[in-house]
Amino acid sequence: MPTHRFAFAVALCTFARLAPAQQADDPVAVPVVVRVTGHADGLPRPGVTLYVLGPEHDAPRVDAEGWLCAEDLPMRRLRRARLARTDPEGVARLRASGPWHVVVGEPFFVCGNAERSDDELHLGVGSNEPVGVRVLDAAGAPLAGFPVALHAAGKDLAVAITDATGKAILGVPKDFTARATIAPAGWVGPKQGFPSIAESLAGRRSVVLQLPPHGSLRLRQVRGGVPVRAAVHAVAMMDPTSYAPLCGQADARSDAAIGLTFELVGLGLELTCYSPFGSGALVQCSGPRRDGEWALHDVELGPLVTLRCPGAGERALRSGLQVRVVTDAGCLTAYASRADADVFVVDFHRALPGSTLRRVDLDAGEHAATRSFDLSLRSAAIDLGEFVLAAHAPQLSGRVVDETGSGVAGATVVVSPDVAPNTGYLLETDAEGRFRSTGPLVRGDDGTALQLVAKAQHGELASEAVRGVDGKVTLTLRRASPAASRGPVREGRLVAHVLGIGAGEDVRSSCRVLSKSGPVMASATNRTANGLTEVVFEHLAAGSYALLLPAPDHFTPVVLDGLEVPARGDCTDTRLQRLDAGALVKHVAVHVVDEQAVPVAGARIEAPSMARQTDGTGTVQLCIGREVPLRATVEAPGKRPLAIEQWPEEQTVCLEPAGSLQVAVRGLPADVPRENVEVWVRDEVRERFAGPRARFADGDVATMLLPVRGRYVLQLIVSRDDGHGGSSGTLVHQDPTPIDIGDAREQRFEFRLDDAVVERLRDALRRLR
Prior knowledge:
By secondary structure, the chain is mainly beta. Helices cover 5% and strands 47% of the residues. It is built from 5 helices and 65 strands. The strands form 15 sheets. An 8-stranded mixed beta sheet has the order 31-25-28-27-26-29-30-32, with no helix packed on it. A hairpin with a 2-residue loop joins strand 29 and strand 30 (367-376). It is globular and about 100 Å long. The chain starts with 8 loop residues before the first strand and ends with a helix. Mean pLDDT is 83; it is low at 1-25.
């Protein structure tokens, strides 16, 4: 049976003279026959719905007011398509002119490739198990033209549009027995309360969907409080405490829209999403509160900044024009686009509403300029006036010498603002050991030029890091002592002799060893005379390793653990001398069900080096090491995660409804802002970032989903968005007393802060600005 992302399929036709059926009055339209037969038996299939579309029907939907509608491509196609149905002979006759394609409606799907000729398209189709859906409004009246979807594991398995009587057909794969819900396509909110396919298939194979009270949400982009048309793309809405998805991410975008609209949003929701505009930051908003109500949330964009640089049009700018804006609320950096010969425009995207502009730095390769301001950033556009680019003077010069004071030619010098840089300017000394840095001027937040740091190396000799004084430094090369050598010694080696795997690049890339420092891929795989494959790992640091080997079905399980590798030399573990890859692994089946014993599709099973999802029967097949202890976590939306440590060949695990964990933080003064403060709950043993987190939603109480039973530590984190859709955090305090999370559905803990922790928290928040 084919794999279904959506239970309908598309037949593409590239005839230059074919067009949608609605153009029957086109004088150049030609008759086209679409013949539909069963893929397995070749018999005609009458009553198959065909959605006939042209290329224009794939375009995102922007309404008359300029709002981009957050809907997926299948939904857009069904809304706009012209319908046709096959007759008793399995034939639909169209008249068309221009390129076109056909979407086969539920519960059918296209199998194989469509067969084409000049005037006929032949489709072989298969059929899923049909489930009838009737959609009613709150008063019980049928809703026509309404999009419905079959949801499982956070995905739309099938999408359909109701007819004039409010009815639609959805298709379910015949082997799909897991719980799946019928909900409006594009619905934002929880799925609890919607009818379940698992229940309907046990009875009449039909369901009635009565819509709960709902409204709509609009996210609008504004500059200086004025709406603007600019690029918009659809995003997924999430719960702000658990970050659990409340809808899928629609594949819609527009280059000029006033904002994004979600048409079906449950009432009383607190929502968060990554910005649908150019900011990339998190947007937090509230959904509608009353039935039929629009909720409008404005996202303030930064002002468009215009500046002029006389002569810039005649000068070749090697790396563009970088503009850095320094305000009383933080700094923003962007590259300017040229609007005219000497005029540049900068769109900083992320807004700093209410902040004041203090300084602007320009960097154009070897030229720079700086001006100070006292200017509000509330307006939609700002003209900064004229800047004069000036050539940079050398920022740092110096000499590299040996211990006798003689200049060293060909030494490598790294110049950077930091003592231990990740990046910097790489220079090389001349015949007299001299070097000169002429990179862009580096300024601090106060606008003053920063002194740079230089460090030199030549062969096995290196210098200390020296900060520039009066523009000149002297770097003395010395041989580093053994205690001062950088990093651990990486001369360990591990060689495994394995039966049952091949050799070559594909096998080598699948063989790995794991340590606390992360995975290391095999250096080489060689076939030996006795039929074994020699797997070699080189340049390993001293420590304990686990060995991963490829197994059938593309699995790569851990097969050995506790392999001790010395700082120098080979691992002497005798288990490596002859390994039978097949005997080291076993295949297990895990069935995941909910509290009513209904299979759960899309449940996620995670362990080190493994992440899998259950199929439509709630089952996942795993390949694991036979003798290696493995602890995995099973989780699904709306369910409490469960830990698995025992692995019989077949087992059923039951996921309970998700509970809540409340952490009350005591001792936090009222004047400390809560917007960037989070409470993290971290497993005491497992990886650091495993566990829930939440911001304050009710006074000084953070509420999150209940994690797996176990022992945890409480942490206070100051987080910030990085401007690219991600975030970073600073650990302020960790409670020294771990907490034990048990079986209760609702659990509460307290996290007490003293004056020293509060001061560290204030300092971390000040650094955000």
